[in-house]
Please model this.
Amino acid sequence: MKVYLGSVTALCLATGASYAGGIERSAQSVGPLFEEGRYVEFSFATVSPDVSGVGGLVTPGVASGDMTETYQQYGFAYKADINDTLSYALIYDQPYGANVNYPTGTGYFAQGSTAEFDSSALTAILQYNFPTKLSVYGGLRYQYIDANAFVPFVTAGVGPFAGAPYEAEAKKDGGAGYLLGVAYERPEIALRVALTYQSKIRHRLDTVESSVLGPNISSTTDINTPQSLTLDFQSGVAKDTLVFGSVRWVEWSDFEIAPDSYVGIVGTPLVFYADDRIKYTLGVGRRLTETWSVAASVNYERTTGSPTGNLGPTDGQLGLGLSAVYTRDNMKITGGISYTDIGEANTIVGAAIPGGVFTDNDAVAVGFKVGFYF
Model:
């Protein structure tokens, strides 16, 4: 059951995580570490969010239009056993991202604003398996991020730089972190419980800002991608039937993007989240034949009600994921789709001015994974 359903549950979790709290796009899963023998996989997902709102105090009642863009996710993993007690895995993912593009011509105060946040990470993990069905694992993670933003509503009507919009370009920066975990497995009943801690990763990005304070001002922007704690579990409950899920906490309250000039003008970070997030996932998988298995999952992240910035106007979610896997010889092909109802969010301009109310938003994700045992 582990071989037939492991990939299904992983893809259900992955497509559901493609629009999670903050700017998270990957659950940073260590799932490939638990595959049997020598294994390699390649994954791809495309995510189409639809996020729009209506102006508050600044442009009351004016619709923003869809301010998000479709994006793609790529992943790779390789796992192998060194001997009966030691295993290792290499995992590549794109853990964080943002693609903001407020349409022009709407009359909404943030029209024409754009922003991008890109990341890529490579994780190396070593696992030690005890004879007691317990295992411990740990590893290092190296991550690159870069970002840019264009915010035309941050400007001034008078002065030497009157009408100059805010713009920032940050160079790519690398940083290292670590992960630690413990797992308990009973393969005969497809039981596995794993607890994984991932540290924050600190970055210092060389940034060039242009604004009402002047053109091409150099600064350094400190960004800490957040620490997290994830509990994954699965268990057979009947012949060819598996229940699985996860509980994931991420310290988003410690994350912000706060370039010096922007904070000096507006008084708040460019991107920030007031609260930590906990995401719950629960699903069931079923093997139909020797070659086909299916799974379904639901995920939930509470809406906090705290205000957000205008470049990340989402708060909470409720989602449904469906997956299927085709297994033949040493190959398995997995496909999954998820629908996410994005929670209502309220944005602010500066420290307290209501910006907009974002409701009735959603995202659709489609993912594929090809894995080989050899």
Summary: The chain has two helices and 22 strands. The chain has one domain: 2-373. Residues 2-17 form the longest helix (16 residues).
